[in-house]
Amino acid sequence: MKLTTEFYQDEVRYGFYVPTAIKQAWGAELQILAEIDRICKKYNIRYFSEWGTLIGAVRHGGFVPWDDDLDIGMLREDYERFKEVAKDELPGEFAIHDYATKENHWLFLARVVNCNRICFEEEHLRKYHNFPYIATVDIFVMDYLYRDEEQEKARCEEIKHILAVADQIIEGRMQDSVKEMFLQELENKYQTKLPRTKNARELGIALYRLAELQMARVSADESDAVAQIFPWVLKGNRGLPKKCYDTLVRLPFEEITIPVPADYDMALRYRYGDYMTIRKVWGGHDYPYFEGQRKNLQAVADFPLPEFTFQPEMLYDSTGHVCRNANAFDGISQNSLCDNAGRVCKEMDKKSSCKQEKDVEEQTLTDIAGQYVSVLDEMMENCTAQMQEQQYGDVLSVLPELQQLVVDFGTLLEEVRGETNPCVQKVVAKIQEYCDALYALYEQLNTRLQEPGAPEAGQQSVDVPGADATVRASYEAFACSYAEMKAEIQQFCIARRSVLFICTGMREWHAYEHLCDEERQKADTDVYIACVPTVFKDIYGHAEYGQNAEDVNTMRIQDHIQNLYGEFADNIRTMPWQKVNPALLAPGTIYIQDPYDGENPCLTIPPIYYAGNLRKYTKNLIYVPAYKVKEFRAEDTTDRYNMKHYVTAPALMYADQIYVQSENMRQRYLECLVEFSGEAYRAIWERKISVSEFVFQSEAGKGTSQKTILYCIGETELANLGKRALAHVESRLQIFADNHENLQVQICFYPPRLSDWEVDLQRVKTLTEMLRTYAETNKAWCTLEKPQKQEDLAAYRERLAMNGDAYYGSPSPYVHAFTLREKPVMLASTEIEY
Fold first, then answer.
1. Disulfide engineering: 806 pairs with which of 55, 758, 794, 824, CB 3.0-4.6 Å?
2. What is the pLDDT of residues 260-310, one digit of tens each?
3. How far apart, in whole angstroms, are the C-alpha atoms of residue 603 and residue 277?
4. What mean pLDDT do residues 12-22 have?
């Protein structure tokens, strides 16, 4: 399977920051699951999501954000068939670990792994996007339980006894005479033959197999319930009705779908109670699971494993000298822009009697504009003196050079700041007027010099009153046009401030929204937005550009800005990344979001937009976290762990300022960065980190008494309620109709596209027709919602929650997009009949 860059990007889910490093683990597990799914479809083997993966599918549409493993379940008969066929079907590097095949794996589950060792081979890293660690999918087995509770208790005691004997033999804690006694007892009881061997592991496997046979000895016909016997039934659990697993439906899970029990609500409520309430408590295993593998690898390696470490020289003091270096942009599709700037600088240098203070490569647009005006002043003064001496030939000879100079500067201005920029348009308009006046003067001088008695070059003209008066008037218009052009350049080029936002996508743009609005309202400021692509990188760190979505991002943000500000967006320009040259633009402030500067394990942005490069072109580099997290405490270990990825990162070292969402988060950042750098640097972090009122401002209210209800109909309703499902939906729609004066109703589905539903297709068709008719009849207050083209589940969920005031209906991942915004949620109940 092929996962997108969007999947691997950092993001915040339900307030929890999920970095790329965790996404790599998720991605590797999804690739294993894809192989399991392929095999199960081929051999008609049923499986379903289990434990945290089941919660994730139902509640989040993917992984539980603070979980990093993937669990599925199978009924015993499917489990045995899968293990048999998978040996020949799984890719060669895969393996199945269970108690018989893996040392010290004394568990009654199978673990499918993508490799038996940590692997740094190029092909493996390419396949798993630079993730070298062993990824796994656990398969839990469900067995049938006795109807009679006493029979089940007796079986559990038998299994416990077999396992107690096995564990003591494996651990070498049983004398040979006692061992022989127990073996004979078990052989007689179960009419089997156990090996006599000195190999404790071999005998342990035989005993575990015997215990597993007892787990599997109840048939489906003898049972009404199923459960994982080890360890839960052995601890007194009585399982779930087996009919709970009769019907499976597929729900979205990240970028794929996964089977779940149609009556997942019963399964989850039985295990977790109110499973839709988020409790971010973790005790299942170490988080993340691969950190233990990394520590074990480091323990045997004779060199430090690669990771970002603190380097004091990266801490940038904005009061110090910064060397701007336009050469950093060589070969990045900006050669023509740099060449044009160089040509303008060199031409001005030729005309100027003063030596430039900076090399051509160090010039900013403001520098060039200032020197440009100085050169033109000098040339215009010479022309004025020559006109007074009536040296028309000398004036005529310099006019083409003046024209070429201003045309080159106008072209450079449009390339750097954009043709549609109103300030640029004003300057270019004055340049055009100046060129028109220049051409008129050229024509007048040329005519005058063609008349009888015209002087040679360098000689004074013989005064011809009428003709010379016309020339002088033309020159006065030319000089006046220059003064106007110069004033425009001074106001809109030299004295004007520019601000640059570096953004990686529409999802990340929202953190900038209020900062951009604040900047655009400053009368002397132009706002530029550079949309940079996030792309995969190979194991050597090289970006794999290929086909990416930077143009789509640019268009989305451009449309959003236009919709947001309309005619007031004149001083905001959205640009593809190749068209921006910070070296020439030299913004007063650059806002950045990507923290990594090449340290992301599998993704990158164009290196020219790394913070370490951008700080050369501005005196104020500001890091703004791309996502708002749910406030957490110092003792929240999973949140604190992930800060090592997005806080102790290069961009925060290089930035002059770091904006955060709250005083609490400022303390968390301080703790993390001081721990990373040492106490000696606390004062620097104290100065750099501040709470910004413009970051992540809450959504404004709609200002209306009419409320919008999102009504979600889940596939599981149709699967569970059967023929009664349509009547249930109709009764709810009637309630909305009775109260429509105060409501707008948006009807949606989960999974969001009905084409993905696998329940009775005729019933789905009937439901669809019924809802279309209802929405058309009540179109004044009711609409049917569906994802827009290329809109993924996360974006769709956020749009629904942004537009809705309250949620009602089936459990779905939409719920928590509402609760995060503190909007009411009511889950619809269904009565399941068995």
1. 824
2. 998 888 888 888 888 878 777 655 567 899 999 999 999 998 888 888 999
3. 33
4. 91
